Amino acid sequence: MGMDMLCVYSYEDAKNLRDKGFSQKLIVMGVHTDEQLKELDTLNCILEITSLHMAKRFVDLKLSSETFVVIDTGMHRLGIAPEEVHECIDIVKDLNVTGLQTHFASSEELTNNYTERQVDTFNAVALSKVVPPFPPSTVVPVYMILVAGAKDV
User: Which of 6, 9, 83, 113 is most buried, judging by how many CB atoms fall within 10 Å of its CB?
Assistant: First the structure.
């Protein structure tokens, strides 16, 4: 397909791409049933943890997929609040967590400094002693996601 990684929102999109032979890294966002999570795990998708409740579900389901922990850097929609990251990392310590990510709310607005504040919040979490040492951050601007420690991104 000419790309190294793709990000989709739904289980259905991920399953369709895998069924059509897309073998590259595939980040799957969104909320999924336990059955969908188990299947996404077998499809070798990169999954996201966006809440403490979800972290506990991933552990209970014994998922082995590469997983990113989403940090809420100010949008307050999805993601682990910076003050809860320590608890989340403790919960998922036995999972295959390979990085952190966030969503930039207004990165396309060049005169808005909100993205800079989000980057500062993200870096404060990513560089804290609470988080395991992931490799240096990588920016994936097409999806406006900041990923720390994504393997082979």
Answer: 6
Return the HEC string of the chain.
Answer: CCCCEEEECCHHHHHHHHHCCCCCEEEECCCCCHHHHHHHHHCCCEEEECCHHHHHHHHHHCCCCCEEEEECCCCCCCCECHHHHHHHHHHCCCCCEEEEEEECCCCCCCCCCHHHHHHHHHHHHHCCCCCCCCCCEEEECCCCEEEECCCCC
pLDDT tens for 83-124 read 999 999 999 999 999 888 888 777 667 677 888 888 889 888
Q: Is the pTM of this model over 0.85?
A: no
User: Is residue 8 a contact partner of residue 14, using CB atoms and an 8 Å limit?
Assistant: yes
